[in-house]
Specification:
Blueprint: H1 2-102
Length: 103
């Protein structure tokens, strides 16, 4: 009987050692998981910051190009209006005068 109790005690001690090792392994794996999770989050955050910088730079370029195009278009329209004014000034003055007289 004592031999059986001794064997049961040994089995229980071995089981406790296995459980303790499993608990330690679980804690170690959990720590590794947390570290990896933090690393992934930092990588994602860093990538997002870079993407935002790239998007801002591209937006700045696009806006600069659009502003240049608007300036060119506006200058062209002003030039066209000045040309019309120079070429048709007398005709326009006469039309305005005629409209005033007829009114």
């Amino acid at each position: 009987m004592e031999k059986t109790i001794g064997q049961l005690f040994e089995i229980e001690e071995k089981a406790n050692l296995i459980i303790n090792r499993a608990t330690e392994e679980k804690a170690s794996l959990h720590d590794d998981f947390e570290k990896e999770n933090i690393r992934i989050e930092e990588t994602i955050a860093s990538n997002n910051v870079q993407k935002l910088k790239d998007l801002q730079a591209q937006t700045d370029v696009d806006l600069t190009n659009e502003i240049k195009a608007l300036i060119i278009n506006t200058e062209k329209r002003l030039s066209d209006l000045e040309e019309i004014n120079i070429k048709k000034h007398e005709i326009l003055v006469n039309q305005v005068f005629e409209n005033i007289i007829r009114s």
